[in-house]
């Protein structure tokens, strides 16, 4: 079954608006965040691997330069230095290359930093020499920070010098060769900066692409959720229910995960619709039976009450047991008549009440109901709290009077003598509000949510005034109140605790016609 024409599914949020597709807590938001996080992680790992590999390649090139410089410095010169000053400045050596020779006791034999061009290479200062002399002797290349000159790739190795001054003296020492890493550091900084920019662009692109793909992929699921949301907002507790809405066939294809959910939802809605139709048919039969039975019982009960009343004249001549039995027959017949009338009223309300809606003065109605309650229960204290201006509601006068009478009768029946019952009337939030409050023992919390259901009683805590005798309540008074108020498009609530119980009835106000404008030429009205 397809969606009914003109019935478009819509998912509504708490404020009555459709929730954002990527709002907080949604599956779409989680998917976008996770996909973007995975892309960001991949970009970071790839950038890190690229930077490390590039650094390794650059260092290998620098190591070759260190080896080339070191190869030219392994033999001694006749002057007793690691090499002649004219030989130190070799064509092909990288700019700012460091060559330093130290004796076995740490004496500086030679220390120069090679510059481009000709002439004497500048000597290194004492701080730089001390930093180089502290390096351990090893042929492994290492990257160190040389004081005064910067970041270098250095190699340190032992060397033997034989003096050429005729003495044949041999000197033991070590040579430190260093190639600057400034160019390598600059290239790595550029590569890392470029990779950072590319990674940010990749993450941003992944965010945009993931958002578009997720939104498009989740459209069928959102349509299925919209259908379920629309069905969940239908009143399914009573009355005839039409479940015309279904998931579209395109979203109920069992070949996909979402399609299987949509198909299952359609099957469930079909089953629910069949169950609701069976329930409605059963309720209709029960209402018809209750209405027919109540109607048919009215005449026999009226006859029983009439015959019982006829015996009043001769009850003095009857035996005491017979007179008591006839009085009980009359009392129970009257109680049963009230029960039958209440059942008949509820059956009529359930089948669609025919109420005469019109402007009703609630102020006058409340005053009359409280006056009747005062006459019926003089042992209670009856109070009124009315506004200065009349309150006019839209409803059936007789039915609304019955609502107030039932609430007052409930307070009188289920509270002890001396209880204070206050009836209030006001206009609140654009509606007429009638409240009935008593300071009795209260309604047990366990049954507060069921007080408006039929045959619900709270006699265990709210006792009857007339000697504590119970059993005269039919349990239908508050059910009639709820049914009548609901028929008027209003609602009734209850709040109760020991010492204070309040029933609140909300009814729509009647539109007050505006007074016609007074013509300035109209003659004055004499009093």
TrEMBL record:
GO molecular function: calcium ion binding; phosphorelay sensor kinase activity
Subcellular location: Cell membrane
SUPFAM superfamilies, per database record: ATPase domain of HSP90 chaperone/DNA topoisomerase II/histidine kinase (SSF55874), Homodimeric domain of signal transducing histidine kinase (SSF47384)
Class in the EC hierarchy, top level: transferase
Superkingdom of the organism of origin: Bacteria
Substrates-to-products reaction catalysed: ATP + protein L-histidine = ADP + protein N-phospho-L-histidine
Domain (Histidine kinase): residue spans on this chain: 292-511
Natural source organism: Friedmanniella luteola
Cofactor(s) this protein requires: a divalent metal cation
UniProt-listed Enzyme Commission number(s): 2.7.13.3
Protein name: histidine kinase
InterPro entries: HAMP_dom, HATPase_C_sf, HATPase_dom, His_kinase_dom, HisK_dim/P_dom, HisK_dim/P_sf, Sig_transdc_His_kin-like_C, TCS_sensor_his_kinase
Protein keywords: Kinase, Membrane, Phosphoprotein, Transferase, Transmembrane, Transmembrane helix, Two-component regulatory system
Pfam families, per database record: HAMP (PF00672), HATPase_c (PF02518), HisKA (PF00512)
Transmembrane segments: 31-53, 187-214
Domain HAMP: 215-277
GO cellular component: plasma membrane
């Amino acid at each position: 079954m397809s969606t009914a024409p003109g019935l478009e599914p819509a998912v509504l949020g708490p404020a009555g608006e459709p929730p954002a597709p990527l709002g907080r807590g949604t599956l779409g938001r989680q998917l976008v965040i996770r996909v973007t996080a995975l892309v960001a992680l991949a970009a970071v790992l790839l950038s890190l691997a690229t930077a490390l590999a590039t650094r390794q390649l650059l260092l290998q090139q620098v190591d070759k330069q260190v080896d080339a410089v070191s190869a030219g410095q392994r033999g001694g010169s006749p002057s007793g230095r690691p090499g002649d000053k004219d030989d130190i400045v070799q064509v092909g050596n990288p700019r700012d290359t460091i060559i330093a020779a130290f004796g076995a006791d740490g004496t500086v034999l030679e220390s120069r930093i090679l510059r481009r061009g000709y002439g004497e290479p500048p000597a290194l200062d004492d701080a730089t020499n001390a930093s180089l002399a502290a390096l351990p002797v090893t042929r492994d290349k290492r990257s160190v920070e040389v004081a005064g000159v910067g970041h270098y790739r250095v190699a340190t190795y032992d060397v033997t010098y034989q003096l050429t001054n005729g003495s044949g003296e041999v000197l033991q020492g070590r040579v430190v060769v260093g190639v600057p890493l400034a160019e390598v550091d600059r290239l790595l900084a550029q590569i890392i900066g470029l990779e950072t920019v590319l990674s940010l662009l990749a993450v941003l692109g992944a965010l945009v692409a993931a958002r578009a793909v997720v939104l498009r992929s989740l459209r069928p699921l959102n349509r299925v959720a919209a259908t379920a949301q629309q069905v969940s907002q239908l009143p399914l507790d009573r009355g005839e229910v039409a479940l015309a809405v279904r998931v579209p066939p395109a979203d109920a294809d069992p070949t996909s995960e979402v399609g299987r959910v949509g198909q299952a939802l359609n099957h469930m809605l079909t089953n629910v619709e069949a169950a609701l139709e069976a329930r409605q048919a059963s309720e209709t039969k029960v209402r018809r039976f209750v209405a027919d039975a109540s109607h048919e019982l009215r005449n026999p009960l009226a006859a029983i009450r009439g015959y019982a009343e006829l015996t009043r004249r001769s009850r003095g001549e009857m035996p005491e047991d017979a007179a008591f039995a006839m009085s009980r027959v009359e009392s129970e017949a009257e109680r049963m008549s009230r029960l039958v009338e209440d059942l008949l009223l509820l059956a009529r309300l359930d089948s669609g009440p025919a109420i005469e809606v019109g402007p009703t003065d609630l102020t006058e109605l409340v005053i009359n109901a409280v006056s009747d309650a005062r006459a019926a229960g003089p042992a209670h204290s009856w109070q009124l709290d009315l506004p200065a201006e009349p309150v006019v509601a839209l409803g059936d006068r007789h039915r609304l009077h019955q609502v107030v009478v039932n609430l007052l009768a409930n307070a009188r029946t289920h509270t002890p003598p001396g209880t204070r019952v206050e009836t209030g009337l006001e206009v609140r939030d654009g509606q007429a509000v009638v409240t009935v409050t008593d300071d009795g023992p209260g309604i047990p919390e366990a049954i507060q949510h069921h007080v408006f259901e039929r045959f619900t009683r709270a006699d265990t805590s709210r006792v009857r005034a007339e000697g504590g005798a119970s059993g005269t309540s039919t349990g239908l008074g508050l059910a009639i109140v709820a049914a009548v108020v609901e028929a008027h498009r209003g609602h009734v609530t209850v709040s109760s605790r020991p010492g204070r119980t309040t029933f609140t009835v909300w009814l729509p106000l009647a539109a007050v016609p505006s007074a016609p404008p007074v013509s300035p030429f109209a003659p004055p009205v004499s009093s």
